[in-house]
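for the record, two folds in this file. i put them one after another cuz i was lazy. first one right below, seq on top, structure tokens after. the second one comes after a little note so u can tell where it starts
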Amino acid sequence: MSVLLLILLISGAVHLISKGLGAITGGGKDSSSSTPASSVSEIESSSQPDEETISWSSVQLTEADEHQGDLILVNALHEYRSEPEDLLIFYGNKTRSYGIKVAEMYAKSSVVSAMNEMMDAFAAATGNSSALLDSAYRDVTSQQTLYNNDLASTGETTSSTVAAPGASEHHTGYALDLSYQSNVGYQYIDGTGDYAWIAENCWKYGFIVRYPEDKSSVTGMSGKPWHLRYVGKVHAEAIVKGGYCLEEYIDMLKLHDSENPYSFTTEDGEVYLIYYTAGAGTTTDVPVVSGKSYSISGTNEGGFVTIVPMSASAPVSDTSEPSTDSTGSSDASSDSSSNASSESSSSN
């Protein structure tokens, strides 16, 4: 009995000693959360790298610059009556992957280059080199003739197939119509067969199908799978991936100024900030990110859209007018207009 009492006394003493040591070292059950939550949070946050600080500067553009650039909006509400600059003739500058309907056809030089690249890829993918450039740049006088002819043939007072003079994208040098020669004559491509490739892949080369059938209530024009509009590669991908037409895209960008830019990640994983700056009258200070390249285009409806590549490997969008560089200087002055002949075929 005495032996049993001795064992119980020794066991209790050991328990008391171990509990006391636990309270002193913080290893006991009651002290496992002795570090305040705020202290843990501070420790964790201090180990995270600081986010990149964006420093802003600005470039000054003019009211005339609002009507220049590859994102200009031209429709019945936003006419374009300027003469485009930097026009290049296709004849002698095109590749063999497509034909041209007449010799004197012009477009912006960036459009000619993009067309060559796209049609070379189309011919390689399909084995088809029978596509024809049916129409490119047209002046207002040529458009008036087309418009009058369409009204005369339909007996209507307005047209949903031919844009009114001043409202045609062909005035800008950024629009192209494509056709092919069939056994019944020239036919516009309809986005089917081999030509489905163009509708599905044109954005990779900076083009969009400007008048999708399901957007006719927005664009005011019936569907035209043959009418391509050059807007630059970044904008073209953003428009197609977002399911926009050009009118909708610009309206969306108006919700994103430099303080709340639209962040767009391309299929290649490159990140761009895209934002809208409303025109302020005679001159407008357009914000740009210091130390970053950027591209600015007028919208022809009262503002500017800026693209800033944020990932290190992202190229800036294809050069727009007015062109600007990463030093914050503006190259908004323009060369004299090319003395281009008008081309009078096709519609819109």
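(here's the note) second protein begins now
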Amino acid sequence: MTIRILAALLCFLSISKSSLVAAEPRDVVFKSQFDGTEQRYVELLPDGFDAQQSHSIVIALHGHGSDRWQFVKQDRGECKGTRDVANKHGMIFISPDYRAKTSWMGPAAEADTVQIIDEVKQQHRITQVIVCGGSMGGTSALTFAALHPELVDGVVSLNGTANHVEYTQFQDAISASFGGNKQQKPDEYRKRSAELWPDKLTMPIAFTTGGKDTLVPPDSILRLYEVLQKQGRRVKLLHRPNGGHATDLADTTEALEFVIGELKKSAQ
């Protein structure tokens, strides 16, 4: 009898534990409300995920030329750091295509991101939303926060730009995404330039920049940081004067931990 009871108990514990184990990355397909096209994002649940508990989400936005799998699979500092910190804090990890390789958070990508946040909130008990990304993704995280501050609780911008009006790289891709070039769509470039809307950026924000980054120069981020700091905002800058267009694991972790720490202070 004792052996049977013990076996039953072990079976129960095994089932209970398995119900809390993190699932494999889930590739989610949805129909975009913006234009009816099929779009995708990846959802990665944290270890010990419990659907009955509340969770925050990290939305990781990939860089130019990549897709939703970059932050899920790659081990470069920006990607691994974001995954590790999200898992450590029991956060749901969301990595969208946001119109994939060259979107730069144009109108379609913006609409898809709003829809994804809404759908994830319907599926899970969500408390806070942190938007982060590297390069194009770091730029897009800031753009989305300036456009939809009511949906964003924290931002981590890794090697991004905050000013599309002055940015000169990848203009063919950005023009296609924004529906025209700077001369044809000046308002589109202005409203997607976070530096021009500091009053909307009231959430905790962490920036990483490299002084020798020629692909996405740090100037606009440095200016935006200075403005937000003078306004008494909760901001952190990790500027590496000799750094290039990359953020290592340590800086990625520090940036995310800063934002999460500030949000925890606010919740107390």
